[in-house]
Amino acid sequence: MLRLREGQGARNLVGAAGDRILVAVYSLLRPLISLAFLVGSLWFACSVKLGGRTFAEHVDRIGQTPEAHDLIEGTRATVNPVLQEATDRMLGEHIEAPTRAEPAKPEAAPSGRPGAHLPRDRSEVTHAAGARPRASTAEHVKLPGS
What are phi and psi for residue 54, nearest 5 degrees? Predict the structure, then answer.
């Protein structure tokens, strides 16, 4: 952001609103300049002749040489194990898991009415820890200190 020295007095004329405008213009202008530079570079690479060919044609022909193919294969041979190790470290061992859960088939109720197979008495219900939960009483619900 453009800053002026306090002694110049211009800061008082511009004010905070002027600073916001300068920031907005700069934040819009910077990407546009970068995009224009990129487009200009691509145009130059594809249309300006450097000898008998353009820059892009020179790069394409260099990429088709056996030395370039050896370089690419050597790079792949070096990078692929590193990428595989990094993937294994991040994701852990490969575990195959179903991508979606199969819907459970409801068991037919013996009496034909829904829910007949569920226990009617709470004493028949078993809990994960094997212990029954404490009964909810007024003593249990009281806050400490009351």
Answer: -80, 170
Q: Are 1 and 24 in contact (CB under 8 A)?
A: no
Q: Which of 40, 61, 39, 38 is nearest to 51 (CA)?
A: 61
Query: In Å, what is the CA distance from 101 to each residue of 98, 104, 105?
Result: 7, 9, 12
Binning pLDDT at 50, 70 and 90, where does residue 43 land?
Answer: very high
Which residue, 61, 37, 57, is CA-closest to 47? Answer: 57
- Spatial contact of 50 and 58, defined as CB atoms under 8 Å apart: yes
- 12's tokens: 């008082």
Amino acid symbol at 104: A
SS3 for 40? helix
Q: Could you tell me the sign of the dihedral formed by the alpha carbons of 85, 91, 92, 97, in that order?
A: negative
pLDDT digits (tens, 9 = 90+) for 56-67: 999 999 999 999
Q: Residues 70-74: contacts with CB within 8 Å, 24+ apart?
A: none
